[in-house]
Automatic annotation (TrEMBL):
Segments of skewed composition (Basic and acidic residues): 70-90
Protein name as it appears in the record: NADH dehydrogenase
Organism annotation: Aliidongia dinghuensis
NCBIfam families for the chain: PRK08183.1
Transmembrane annotation, as ranges: none
Amino acid sequence: MTTLGTLLFTWLRGEQVGTDAAGNKYYREKGGRKIVKGGGMESRERRWVVYHGIVEASKVPPEWHGWLHHTTDERPPADLEKRPWQKEHLPNLTGTTLAYHPPGSVVRGGHRARATGDYEAWTPN
């Protein structure tokens, strides 16, 4: 859940710059400061995301992650075309029913295939 302070700051000082496929909304501070170097100080425009649903950083897709972290100043286009080899972005599913559980996982019954004989356990001298 987004905090009341974030929503208030967004309402007062935020300028929406885009939305991703998951419904997350991306903002920057109105008037957007640019990087100013000199005098030993550096200032960048403030950028943030208001999550749709549960607040989870892994819900931010790679194209927006780069913009949020000032890797690029270009916002991703709304009609960003994916390459045929690219998969859809998935957030971290740990702790959900969709989490990956490898063979032998306790969640999957705790049974794994027997060793094939190519493994030799270490024993101290």
